[in-house]
Amino acid sequence: MPDATPLTLDDVSVLLVWTAIAIYALAFVAYAVDLARRGAVAVDEKDAAAKGAGVRQRELVNAGGASSRAGIVEQLRAQEAASEEALKAPVGRRARLVWARIGTSLTVLGFLFHLGADVTRGIAAGRVPWSNMYEFALTGTLLIVAVYLGVLFRYDLRFLGTFITGLVVVLLGGTAIWFYTDIVPLMDPLKSVWLVIHVFVASLATALFALAFGLSVLQLMQARRERRVAIAARAHDDAGNAETDAGARAAAPAKTGPAFLQTLPSADALESLAYRFAILGFIFWTFTLIAGSIWANDAWGRYWGFDTKEVWTFVIWVLYAGYIHARATRGWRGARSAWLSIIGFTAVIFNFTIVNMFFKGLHAYSGLS
Amino acid sequence: MTDPLRPADHADADEAGITQPALGVVGWLRWGWRQLTSMRTALVLLLLLAIAAVPGSLVPQRSADPNGVRQYFVDNPDLAPVLDNLSLFDVYTSPWFSAIYILLFISLVGCVIPRTKHHYKAMRAQPPRTPARLSRLEAHRSEILESQDDTDAAATAAAAIEAAQQQLRKAGYRVARYDTAKALSVSAERGYLRETGNLVFHASLVGVLLAVGIGGGFTYTGQTVIIEGRTWVNTMLDYTSFNPGRFVDEEALQPYALTLDDFSLSYVTPGQQGAGQAGDFVAHLTTQFPDADASQGEVRVNHPLEIAGDRVYLMGNGYAPSITIRDADGEVVFSEPVPFLPQDNNMTSQGVVKVPDGLRDQVGLVGFFYPTAQELTNGAFTSVYGDLEYPMLTFWVYSGDLGINDGVPRSVYTLDPSEMTQLAGGDSGVDSLELKPGETVDLPDGLGTITFENEAPDGAAGFQDSVKRYVSLSIHRDASATWVLVFAVLALAGLLAALFVPRRRMWVKATTQGHTVHLEYAGLARGEDPSLDAAVEQFAQRHLASLADPSRLDSRTAQDPVADNGRVRDSNPESTPDVD
Ligand code: HEM
C-alpha cells in the first residue's frame, strides 16, 4: 500500500514542515551552546580582570579604601558600552561566535524548508496559505523567523536565537501535531482580499511582538543582574572599608543570573530595542484592527460587534497602548513597562491558541472540529 | 526644557510629580483634575479597560449572541442571575465598563486640549537659545578650522554658520540665529509633526468614539426572509425584526422593493476533500423603486448590495417547502412555502406549519425536511447532503389550541404544544407523516390532506428545483461607519507620525579664537530618537564638505556620509582634498 499511493503536494508540505522543525531544533541547540560559551568566556575574562584588579584593589584599599565600587560599576559600564557597540555592529564586523553562526546558518536552512512547506501548502490549496488555524500557524511562525533573520542584518540579535528557535519549534511542532487539517475549499466568508491582508498583517505584528517579548524578558533579567552588581559593589565597598579580607569575600561573585547576560547590552538598551519592535508591531496591529473592521462590515454587516476574537484583538491593542504609555510615564519606564510587553505577547498567544480553539464566536475558521 | 507640554508625571517632565494641593475647594479641584489628566491615570485606565473587556469574551453577550445567553440561563440557573446583576451579559454597555472608558476619554480630552494649545504656540516660537556648553549634550561633534589670520577666521566662522543655517533649513528645521560677541550660532528644531501626530491620534480616538456614539442613533438594522419568487418591500411591516437607533424615523425608510429571482450556490461534490460543503452563495434580486424601471442586483457573502444608502447582507439561506393543506371536503385551507431553519451542514431543517382556521380544530405541524434523506438504523432520518438529491419531509401533527389568539406574538419557527394533543408522530401511536415532492397524504383523524408541492418545472428529471429556497437578509443603514473609518485612518496616520518622526534640536556654533575657528555640532532628542547620533554625524559631514566646496551642498545629499569619513573630518577647509 505505502508505495502505491503517490505523495500529494500537501504530503510534501508536511514532510517539509517536520524537516524544518528538526533543523530549528538543532539551531536551538547551537544557540544554547553559544549562550553557555558566552557565559564561560565572560567569566574567564572577569577572572582574568579580577586577578589584575585584585592587586590594584589591594593597593587602592591600602591607599585609603578608595573606590573599588566605582571600579566594579565602571567594569559594568564598559561591558555595556562594548555590547551596545556589538549590537549595532554591521554584519561584517561582528564577533566570531562559532556556535551562534552555526545556529544562524541552521535557522536559515530551517527557514528555507519552512518556506517550502508554506509555499507547497499554498499551491496545493490553490490560495494563500493562511486560511485555517494550521495555515495561520505555519505562516505566522514563518514570519517570526523571517523577521528575526531580517533584523539580524541591522542588529546582532543572535542572543535571541534560542528564544526564537525554541518558540518556533514549540509552536510549529504543536501546529503539526494538533492543528493539521486537510485542504478543503474556502468557506464563503473567507473569500475576500481582506483575508490576504488582514491575516498576513496580523501575523507580521505577532512576529514583531514576539521579538519585543524576547527582548523584554532579557531586559528584566539584565535589570536584575545590574541591580545585584550594584548591590554587590556597595557591599564590597562597605566591607572593603572595614577589612580587606572580608572585602575580598564580599567581592566574590554574587549570584547575578546566567553568565551570558554579561555579554548582552544593558537593560536600557534592550528596553529601547524592545520598544522599537513593539511600536512597529503596534502599528501593524492597529492596521489589523482597522482592516478587520472593514472586512467585518462587508461580511457580517457591522464593523464592530465585540465578537470574542474582536474582544481579544482590542484587549491586545489596549495592552500595547498601555505599554507605550508606560514607557512615557514616570515610575513605569523600565521593569514595569517590560511586564506589559510580556503580558501583551501572552495575550497574543492566548488569542491565537485558546481563543481560536475553545471560545465560541463568529471567527470560526480554525478548521478544527 | 519640557515643551511640548506633557502631563506632569511624563517621564520627560522635570517637575517632581504632582504636588499636594493648597487647601481650598479650588485647590482640590485643580489637584483632582491634574490627577485625572496625568499619564499614570491614563495608563491605569487603559489597563483597566483591557481587563474589563475580557469577561465579555468568557460569557455570552446579548448583543453578539442572544441565544448563547438564553442557553447560559438554562445551563446555569443559579449563576446566571448573579452574572446578570453584574451586567456580565452586557459587558460593553455596563455601567462599570462605560465608567472606565468615559473617564479615559475625559482624561484624554483634558490632556489633549492644553497640549494642543501649547503645541500651537510652540510651532510659532523661535527655536530655543543655544546652550552655553554644547559639549554636555548627548550627541556632540567638534572641529577645528585653521585660517590664515583673524579676519579670515571671522569670515570663515560667519560663512560656516550661514551655510549651516541654510543646510538646516533645507532639511526641514526651523532655525534661529543666536550670535554673541564671542560666538556665532544657529539653533534649529524639527519634528513638530511628531507632536502633531500624537495629538491627531488622540483626537481621532475621540472622533471614533463620537462617531460610534452619535452615528449609532441614526443606524438601524432589520432582518427579513425572502422566498424565491417573492417580493419584499422596505417598510416596517415586512421586517421580521428591526433594531432602530434612537433617532431613526421608522416611517421614512427608503421606498424600494426586492424580489428574490433565484438563489444559487454550489456544492463540493462527493469524493472530493470537503465533500458536501456549500459555497458561492448568490441571491439574484430584482430591485424596484417607485416610478422607476426595475434593475438587477446581487447579494453575496462579503459583497452586500448597496441600495439607496442601505446595505443588504446575505445572512443565511434554507429551504421553504411549499405545502398545501385541504380540509376533508377538499377545500384549500393553507397553501404557501414555509421556510425551514437549517439544523446542520447537510441542511436537515426544521419548520412549523400553523393552520388556525378552516379545519375542525386548530392544527399545528412540526416538520423536518431532509434534502437528501437517509434512514438511520433506528428508523429516524437524517440528511447526508445539502442539495436536493432525495428530498423528504416528515411531520408530527398536533391539534388543539395554537395559542395565537391572545395577541402575544409567537415565533413562526416554533410551536407550543402545551395546549394541544399529538395526533401523529412521537408517542402518539400514529406514524409521523412522510412526503416526497408531489405527494399527498391524509392528515390523521380525517382532518383532511396535506400536499408537498413539487415546484420543479413540468417534465424535470430528478428533484432539482423541486423545493424553493429562501434567503435571510439583513438590511442596514449605518451613517457612522464612514466617519469611524475616516477617524480610524486619521488615527493610524497620526500614530505613524507620532512614533516615527524624530523630534530633535540641533545647534551649530562657531567660536573664533585668534586664527582658529572652533565648530561645534550638537543634537538633543525630544522623545524616542534612536538615530540622533547618526543624524548629527551626518549633518556635520555634509556641512564640512560644503564648506570645502560650497557647490556641493546640494549635490551631496544622496551620498553616504560615512564613506568619506576621516578625510573630511580632520582637515581644514582650504586643504580638503577633493573627495569625489
Ligand atoms: C483611549 C485612550 C488612549 C490610547 C489608546 C492612547 C494611546 C497612545 C499611544 C498609542 C501613544 C503612542 C503614540 C504617540 O506618541 O502618539 C500615546 C502617547 C501618548 N499619550 Fe496616549 N492614549 C490614550 C489616552 C491618553 C490620555 C488620557 C493621555 C493624557 C494623560 C495620553 C497622553 C499621551 C502622551 C503624553 C503621549 C506621548 C508619550 C510620549 O511622549 O512618548 N494618552 N498614547
What's the average pLDDT of chain A? 83
Say how many strands of chain B there are.
Answer: 26
Number of helices of chain B: 11
- Could you say which structural class the secondary elements and strand pairing of chain A correspond to? mainly alpha
Task: Please give the structural blueprint.
The complex is a heterodimer of chains A (369) and B (580).
Chain A: H1 9-62, H2 68-88, H3 98-125, H4 133-152, H5 161-179, H6 193-242, H7 244-251, H8 267-299, H9 308-327, H10 335-358
Helix pairs in contact in A: 1-3, 1-5, 2-6, 3-4, 4-5, 4-6, 6-7, 6-8, 6-10, 8-9, 9-10
Chain B: H1 25-36, H2 39-53, H3 55-58, H4 66-75, H5 79-85, H6 95-124, E1 139-146, H7 150-170, E2 174-177, E3 183-190, H8 192-217, E4 220-227, E5 231-233, E6 241-244, E7 257-267, E8 278-288, E9 295-300, E10 305-307, E11 310-320, E12 322-327, E13 332-337, E14 341-342, E15 349-355, E16 362-370, E17 373-375, E18 381-383, E19 392-400, E20 420-424, E21 433-435, E22 440-442, E23 448-452, E24 468-477, H9 481-500, E25 504-513, E26 516-525, H10 532-548, H11 552-555
Antiparallel strand pairs in B: 1-26, 2-3, 3-25, 4-6, 4-24, 5-7, 7-8, 8-9, 10-11, 11-24, 12-13, 12-23, 14-15, 15-16, 16-19, 17-18, 19-20, 19-21, 22-23, 25-26
The structure holds protoporphyrin IX containing FE.
What's this model, at a glance?
The complex is a heterodimer of chains A (369) and B (580). Chain A has 10 helices and no strands.
What does this structure look like?
The complex is a heterodimer of chains A (369) and B (580). Chain A is globular, with a radius of gyration of 25 Å. Chain A has ten helices and no strands. Chain A has helices at 9-62, 68-88, 98-125, 133-152, 161-179, 193-242, 244-251, 267-299, 308-327, 335-358. The two termini of chain A are 28 Å apart. By secondary structure, chain B is an alpha+beta fold. Chain B folds into four domains: 31-111; 126-190 and 502-575, TATA-Binding Protein; 197-217 and 481-497, no CATH class; 220-477, no CATH class. In chain B, 29% of the residues lie in helices and 29% in strands. In chain B, helix 8 runs antiparallel to helix 9 (481-500). Chains A and B meet through helix 8 and helix 9 of A and helix 2, helix 3, strand 8, strand 11 and helix 9 of B. Bound molecules: protoporphyrin IX containing FE (HEM). Protoporphyrin IX containing FE (HEM) sits between chains B (6-7, 10, 37-39, 42, 46, 104, 107-108, 111, 198, 201-202, 205, 495, 498-499, 527) and A (321, 324-325, 328).
